[in-house]
Amino acid sequence: MEGPPPPSRRGRPPDWLIYGGIVVALAIIALARKEHADAPPAPPPIGDAATMDAPSTVLAAGASFRSRLIKPAAEPGTRPVSGTAFSISDQGVWLTARHVVQDCGKAVVMVSRTRGVTAKVFADKAADVAVLTTDGGAPPLPMALGLRLTPGQRVYLPGFPQDRAGEAAARFIGSDSLKPAARGSRPQPVMVWAEAGRTDGLKGSLAGLSGAPVLDSAGRVVGVTLAEAPRRGRIYSATPESIRAALALAGQTPSGFARGQPITVDNYGRAADTLRRDLRVAQVVCLG
Asked: Is 107 helix (H, G, I), strand (E, B) or coil?
């Protein structure tokens, strides 16, 4: 007696197609998770309070300041404005956002948790970019202001959001104009980025990241962080033209011998920690 006929395979896709579809789906899920990649929390500052407050504070390798380090103190009942700055020359030239140091009685670049060095401010009224100079400096970051950016290109922003060490990742969207908060000011051209990651556990605003370098995958500066639109997940940075104009106004030029370090979605937290530890990226505080 013959057994029942085998089940019909008509209409069923071949096994290789089914398994191939599963592989593709898993790859898409993996890429989607990479699209928004958070960095691990920043480690605590090196050294205890006693060490950092001591006159013999050990500076980062390559950093040298000839002026006396001070311990910034705000007026009673007030909190100093703070942001981020980054070195572009070991002779003591830094870039930051103008609004961080605007109308600042004393600008201080912090070289430890409690000590800093005073800085002279050269602010470009036409753009939200400022140049700081100090008596001595730290290893510079390389500049790539002529780099052509492509939509979706990923960048990294190390600094001090919410007055503590942290960083963000973003993807390039395009160019736009940003209306300044000051009444009567003209809109300024900016580059627009979509946030694609941040320090794990960092919630809310990225305030304090203003002035941070916008770094490409080779660790080169392509912009200066200016502002954010939290609800839209957007970050705005100064254009290369604005940065060049600010440097020309201050009579300064970036170092031509700076070297960057590769940065990826997997290591940008550690890379940011290294930049802060080397004082290539530092916190800037505005007193008075």
From this structure: strand
For 170, phi then psi, to 5°, come to -155, 165
Q: Report pLDDT for 12.
A: 59
Q: Give the distance from CA 25 to its chain's centroid.
A: 33
196, with CB counted inside 10 A (0-12, 13-18, 19+), is buried
Q: Which of 90, 113, 207, 120 is nearest to 159 (CA)?
A: 207
pLDDT of residue 7: 47
For the chain, what are the domain ranges? 49-137
Q: Is 228 exposed, middle or buried (0-12, 13-18, 19+ CB in 10 A)?
A: buried
pLDDT digits (tens, 9 = 90+) for 110-129: 998 889 999 999 998 888 99
Query: Which residues are registered as beta bridge partners of 120?
Result: 133
Q: Which residues pair with 225 in a beta bridge?
A: 237
Q: Can you name the CATH fold of 49-137? A: Thrombin, subunit H (2.40.10)
